[in-house]
């Protein structure tokens, strides 16, 4: 008779299940005044979360309002805490989780676009191939010499990532990206309702 010894049930062997981190796109309407961006970013860094993309610009000059778009990755409950804390900061007018809003309304995700400027140096066949690929991706040549091209490309971040990865072996020199600009689909705006 083979009796296998079973370890006793113990709290030491209980593992806490952590929710998988998910990517979220947040749109935040704030007063356009000094220090607001630092306060918003501080909530993410204080929780140990990286900001994958950040864009900010004044959007309503007469009202002195700016829109901050943040793409981050984290546990859903922590993202909810950050959103709740953002709502309590005085110069913040509205916080919308565009990713969650799209899920809840059964729409496709938010409309997201990014601009990248990509420099590629090369001659001969690599140069011809870079131009061909740029045409396929609808990238525009905004500067060129006999030794390099600078392309402008807009689209989803995944499109830009793919373009950059294809250009890498052809002589990729430098990349500059704006970060994601995003808004929800449909007729309603952030300051309505």
From TrEMBL:
Xref: SUPFAM superfamilies: ACT-like (SSF55021)
EC numbers for this chain: 2.2.1.6
ACT domain: residues covered: 25-100
Top class in the EC scheme: transferase
A GO MF label: acetolactate synthase activity
UniProt KW keywords: Amino-acid biosynthesis, Branched-chain amino acid biosynthesis, Transferase
UniProt cross-references to PROSITE patterns, sorted A to Z: ACT
Keyword Transcription regulation among UniProt keywords: no
InterPro entries: Acetalactate_synth_ssu, Acetolactate_synth/TF_NikR_C, Acetolactate_synth_ssu_C, ACT-like_dom_sf, ACT_dom, AHAS_ACT, AHAS_small-like_ACT
Function: Catalyzes the conversion of 2 pyruvate molecules into acetolactate in the first common step of the biosynthetic pathway of the branched-amino acids such as leucine, isoleucine, and valine.
Oligomer status and interactors: Dimer of large and small chains.
Protein name: Acetolactate synthase small subunit
Organism: Aureimonas populi
């Amino acid at each position: 008779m083979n009796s296998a010894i079973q370890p006793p049930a113990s709290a030491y062997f209980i593992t806490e299940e952590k929710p998988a981190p998910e990517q979220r796109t947040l749109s935040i309407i704030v007063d356009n005044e000094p220090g607001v961006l630092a306060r918003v970013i501080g909530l993410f860094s204080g929780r140990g979360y990286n900001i994958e993309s950040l864009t900010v610009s004044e959007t309503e000059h007469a009202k002195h309002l700016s829109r901050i778009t943040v793409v981050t990755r984290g546990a859903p409950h922590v993202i909810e805490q950050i959103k709740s804390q953002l709502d309590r900061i005085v110069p913040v007018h509205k916080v919308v989780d565009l990713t969650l809003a799209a899920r809840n309304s059964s729409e496709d995700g938010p409309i997201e676009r990014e601009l990248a400027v990509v420099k590629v140096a090369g001659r001969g066949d690599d140069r011809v191939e870079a131009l061909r690929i740029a045409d396929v991706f609808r990238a525009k040549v905004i500067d060129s010499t006999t030794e390099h091209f600078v392309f402008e490309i807009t689209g989803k971040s995944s499109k830009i990532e793919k373009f950059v990865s294809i250009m890498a072996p052809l002589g990729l020199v430098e990349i500059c990206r704006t970060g994601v600009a995003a808004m929800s689909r449909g007729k309603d705006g952030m300051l309505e309702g």
